[in-house]
Design brief:
The structure is a single chain. This protein has helices spanning about 40-45, 70-75, 90-100, 105-120, 120-125, 135-145, 165-180, 190-200, 215-220, 225-230, and strands at about 1-10, 15-25, 30-35, 55-60, 60-65, 75-80, 155, 185-190, 200-205, 210-215. The protein has a six-stranded mixed sheet, sandwiched between helices. Strands 2-1-4-5 form a four-stranded antiparallel sheet, covered by helices on one side. It has about 230 residues and is an alpha/beta fold. The chain is globular and about 45 Å long.
C-alpha cells in the first residue's frame, strides 16, 4: 500500500499541496481529479522523489521522502509523466530500453516482449523514431516505458491529455488492462468521467486540499462532482 500522510508541497511562497492524506491499496486503481493547479501532478512528483515535500509518503513500509528518485524506482514505484516526455530522436525500442535501464539484459528483453504484447502497434513501429509516432502511439510508448522497470505501482499523469475521443477510450481500456495484469495504479486525470469510471477509489483535489473522496461510482453520481467536473 501507498500511504500519504499530511503531505505539504511549497514552491517558494506558494503552497501547492496543503497537508493531504490518502491511501492507494495494492491491486487497486485510485484516481485524483481536480482542476488545473489543484496539486495533482505535484503529489505524483513528490511520490516519485522529484519535488521536496513535508509529511510522510510510505510504500510497503519504506519511507519515500528520504529516498532518491532512483531508489524509489527500485522500490517498485514508476511515473508516466504528463506530456509523455519520450525521447523523439530515439527509436521506440531505444525508448523502452531506457525505461528498464536498472535491470539485467534478460529482464529487459522479457519486459519488451510484454510491452509489445500489450501494445502491438509499438511492435510494428519498434525501429521508428519516437517523434514520428502519432499522439496516441506516443502515449502508449510513455506507458510502456514506465512499465519497463516492472513496477508494482504505476503513477500516470494525464495519460488522456490531448488525445482524440476514440484514443481516450483506448487509453482507459489500457489502464484497466495494466491493472488486471497485477499493477496498482495511481491516476491523475482532468477527464473526470473516464477516470471515475475505471477507478476503485477517488479523491477530489481543490487548491491543494482533498474536498471529497469515495468510490469511483459514488463520486460519478455525486451532484457536487457532476456540477464541477462532469458538465452537469
Amino acid at each position: 500500500m501507498l500511504k500519504i500522510e499530511r503531505l505539504a508541497i511549497r514552491y517558494g511562497g506558494i503552497e501547492a499541496v496543503r497537508g493531504i492524506s490518502l491511501e492507494v491499496p495494492k491491486g487497486k486503481i485510485v484516481t485524483l481529479i481536480g482542476a488545473n493547479g489543484a496539486g495533482k501532478s505535484s503529489t505524483l512528483r513528490a511520490v516519485a522523489g522529484l519535488v521536496k515535500a513535508s509529511g510522510s509518503i510510505s510504500w510497503d513500509g519504506i519511507e519515500l521522502t528520504t529516498q532518491t528518485p532512483e531508489d524509489i524506482l527500485k522500490a517498485g514505484v514508476a511515473l508516466c509523466p504528463e506530456g509523455r516526455r519520450i525521447f523523439p530522436h530515439l527509436t521506440v525500442l531505444e525508448n523502452l530500453k531506457l525505461g528498464g535501464y536498472q535491470r539485467k539484459a534478460d529482464e529487459i528483453e522479457k519486459s519488451i516482449a510484454k510491452a509489445f504484447e500489450l501494445f502491438p502497434r509499438l511492435k510494428e513501429r519498434s525501429w521508428q523514431p519516437g517523434g514520428t509516432l502519432s499522439g496516441g502511439e506516443q502515449q502508449m510508448l510513455a506507458l510502456a516505458r514506465a512499465l519497463m522497470s516492472n513496477p508494482e505501482l504505476v503513477m500516470m499523469d494525464e495519460p488522456s491529455l490531448g488525445l482524440a475521443p476514440l484514443l481516450v477510450q483506448e487509453v482507459f481500456e489500457i489502464i484497466k488492462e495494466i491493472n488486471r495484469k497485477g499493477k496498482t495504479v495511481l491516476l491523475v486525470e482532468q477527464n473526470a468521467f473516464g477516470a471515475l469510471n475505471v477507478a476503485d477509489y477517488a479523491y477530489v483535489l481543490e487548491t491543494g486540499e482533498i474536498t471529497l473522496q469515495g468510490t469511483g461510482q459514488e463520486l460519478l453520481h455525486d451532484k457536487r462532482v457532476i456540477d464541477a467536473y462532469l458538465g452537469g
